[in-house]
Amino acid sequence: MTPADDATPDGRSALHPDADPPAAVDLSPELADALGRAARTPTLVIACDYDGTLAPFVDDPTLAVPAPGAIDALDRLAGLPRTTVALLSGRNREALARVSGAVAPLVLVGSHGSEWEGGFDTPLDDDELARLDRVGSELSEIVSRTPGAHVEHKPTAAVLHVRPVEDPALRQRAMAEAMARPAALDGVFVTEGKNVVEIAVREASKGAAIERLVEQTGAEIAIFIGDDVTDERGFARLRDGDIGIKVGDGRTLATHRVADIPAVVGLLSRLAELRG
Ligand SMILES: O=P(O)(O)OC[C@H]1O[C@H](O[C@H]2O[C@H](CO)[C@@H](O)[C@H](O)[C@H]2O)[C@H](O)[C@@H](O)[C@@H]1O
What we know:
The protein has helices spanning 29-40, 70-78, 93-100, 126-144, 168-180, 206-217, 232-235, 261-275; strands spanning 44-48, 83-88, 107-109, 115-116, 119-120, 150-153, 157-161, 189-193, 196-200, 221-226, 243-247, 256-258. It is α/β, with parallel strands linked by helices. The chain folds into two domains: 3-11 and 22-120 and 205-275, 3-Layer(aba) Sandwich (Rossmann fold); 126-200, Trehalose-6-phosphate phosphatase related protein, domain 2 (Alpha-Beta Plaits). Strands 3-2-1-10-11-12 form a six-stranded parallel beta sheet, with helices on both faces. It has a four-stranded antiparallel beta sheet with strand order 6-7-9-8, with helices on one face. The longest helix is centred in the middle third of the chain and has 19 residues, at 126-144. The ligand O=P(O)(O)OC[C@H]1O[C@H](O[C@H]2O[C@H](CO)[C@@H](O)[C@H](O)[C@H]2O)[C@H](O)[C@@H](O)[C@@H]1O binds at residues 49-52, 57-59, 61, 64, 89-91, 152, 159, 161, 163, 193-196, 198, 228, 230. Removes the phosphate from trehalose 6-phosphate to produce free trehalose. Keywords: Hydrolase, Magnesium, Metal-binding. This is Trehalose 6-phosphate phosphatase. Pathway: Glycan biosynthesis; trehalose biosynthesis.
């Protein structure tokens, strides 16, 4: 099925009719203050990670739809003056568009910040293509011996997924083999995420993507919300006065934290009310 096959007349995917927004959420006083400041700033960028931030984790990445109210809150914000809202994901851009159902004016940035509306700034050269092919083959060989595992192929990376592998020993073995072999090749960039090892032939950073959004818009404040280790590269590049929000547990460079995805939807809705 192509993206157009399941599109509704407004261009949004029929996979995700938006549901009612969640109940109001309790925010820390510090985060409530920060949102107030963001609401009053003339030009604002809001960048959100996707999986684990707007969409709950599921075994099949093609079925990871947004939480109820998430896209609605982002749409409300994106409809406000001088407010740029981006989905900033490790997924390739086409997959991000399909699962999220997000359409313009929401900005979609894929492949950990390196894939924009016009594609990649520079296409892969022959060496990179050959390396990507080898990484994909080696991961496929590991998958052939690991029931439940699968490989996700992206324009600049291949990803080993082990979330559906029931046996923890097999899961661990597959991850270890990926780290010992394709991830150890010269010229690859490795990211260990939640039940995934991603092996890319191009380096990408969500931090650089946030900086690009800020540069394009002249935003005084950028908000970045994310849950995974890859999102730390985004938090690390925020400026004084920007607002980093970590979702869930774990060490982080973010200045604020919320418990879960419903809290993300709640804070986005609150921000839309304050700025609207
Ligand atoms: O940067 P993100 O938007 O958070 O994307 C990170 C990776 O997300 C996807 O994998 C994760 O979600 C899957 C679906 O819920 C889950 O099965 C997997 O275990 C998670 O790691 C996506 O498939 C990857 O390509 C992204 O890099």
